[in-house]
Amino acid sequence: AEDTGVRVELAEDDDGKKTSIALKLWVEDHKKLKGKYKESGAIEFTFDLEKEVPEVVAQEMVESGFFHESDAKTVGKSIKDRVALIKWRRGRMASVAV
Amino acid sequence: SATAQVVHSAGRRFIVSPVPEDRLKEQ
Residue A80 has what pLDDT? Predict the structure, then answer.
């Protein structure tokens, strides 16, 4: 997989039922973050698996001052990949249960 | 700790915190 330097993982256990789930995003290269957020690195947020779009959340992060506009695509892709994995795992768990 | 909350105009809440040391060099 392409290494974007942006990691997204679950910030809570996935019970397979909730549509809104807590995710945590962090960057390996702090230079990607803007201004005062350079000293931080992890951003936690909730994401609705059914209603929300990863690219929109990435844009909100840009507008909130975390990232440069040029990184919106990378951030959106990282969230999208994680969301796809969560959905895939849920689908797999459901089929095993059946 | 250095956690902080940022609320976007759309209403989404972002919680900002330092990355754990062991995560920084993870490959």
Answer: 97
Find chain B residues with C-beta within 8 A of A46's C-beta. 12-13
Q: Is A8 helix (H, G, I), strand (E, B) or coil?
A: strand
pLDDT for B17 beyond 50: yes
CB–CB of A40 and B2 under 8 A? yes
Question: What are the φ/ψ torsions at residue A3 (nearest 5 degrees)?
Answer: -95, 110
Separation CA A59–CA A22 (nearest Å): 18
Helix (H) or strand (E) holding B4: strand B4-7
Please identify which residue in the block is written with the tokens 């990691």: A7
In the predicted model, what is the mean pLDDT of chain A? 90
Total beta-carbon pairs less than 8 A apart between chain A and chain B = 53
> Which chain A residue shows the shortest CA-CA distance from B14?
A45
